[in-house]
Amino acid sequence: MLVKFTKMQGAGNDFVVLDATRAALKLSPRQLQKLGDRRFGVGADQILVVEPAPDDSVDFRYRIFNGASGTEVEHCGNGARCFVRYVRDHGLTDKPVVRVATINNRLELRLQADGRVTVDMNRPRFEPEALPFDTTGLQPRSQGQAQLWPLSLPGGPTVEVALVSMGNPHAVQRVEDVRTAAVAELGPLIEAHPRFPRKVNAGFMQVIDRGQIALRVFERDAGETLACGTGACAAVVAGIRLGWLDATVDVETRGGRLTIEWAGGDAPVLMTGPAVTVFEGEIEL
Ligand SMILES: N[C@@H](CCC[C@H](N)C(=O)O)C(=O)O
């Protein structure tokens, strides 16, 4: 089967985007993995599939698969920005504000005059069950409005993490310096920790000042990526609740800058950042 694709990136988090609005596209995990493969396929952290709207409350549905595993996931912040750039550039809509359904969310996306995209990422959740996270026998430490949970890593140290669900699960820890943080060593141990039965995205956050952090994320089923949009939202929300950050924060990732705003409580998290087309092509799957 010959499939047309668009390669995109948002702050260096890269995607293969497929149009399934005109004809249904059902790909096996092996075909998705081939698209994600940087040697035998196109290469991408995630595969995004644009589908027709499931009902009148949204304009499209979009599905997200991790490129390394082919597993479907709930949310992708950088992908959401690329999705809206894609539907506008391919003439699938001319609306300035686009609404989209994901597996467990409804998002609103707005193209800014400077080409960046702002996404209403909905409200974050903090209950351990939302990730889920098994708290059996654990006592969290309270700080500000947040709780820090001790996570004993097999054969490694015990780290303290803040739990945030942005629709997908995140465990965020503060580090002195992201450049020297043990992301490659601790990331896989946190991602696959048995207390997270559906695995987790592991964030490593350096607070630079109350309006700026540096962040690296070891993503579930993807490894460390150059940026993670939901990870940026999770880190900022955790930092605000812990009393370290103000309501608007610039997040420096290895692939670019994202701006995250959160007014607290039930307010939605707003994420603004770039969305860029790299090239288009066709691949035999
Ligand atoms: N890159 C993403 C997150 C993609 C999904 C993640 N790997 C998961 O499994 O939850 C982002 O920009 O948010």
UniProtKB/TrEMBL annotation:
It catalyses: (2S,6S)-2,6-diaminopimelate = meso-2,6-diaminopimelate. Keywords: Amino-acid biosynthesis, Cytoplasm, Isomerase, Lysine biosynthesis. Substrate binds at N13, Q46, N66, G77, N78, N168, N201, E219, R220, G229, T230. It is an enzyme of class 5 (isomerase). Catalyzes the stereoinversion of LL-2,6-diaminopimelate (L,L-DAP) to meso-diaminopimelate (meso-DAP), a precursor of L-lysine and an essential component of the bacterial peptidoglycan. Pfam families: DAP_epimerase. Pathway: Amino-acid biosynthesis; L-lysine biosynthesis via DAP pathway; DL-2,6-diaminopimelate from LL-2,6-diaminopimelate: step 1/1. InterPro entries: DAP_epimerase_DapF. Its EC number is 5.1.1.7. The active site is at C76, C228. The record marks H170, E219 as: Could be important to modulate the pK values of the two catalytic cysteine residues. This is Diaminopimelate epimerase. It comes from Ideonella alba.
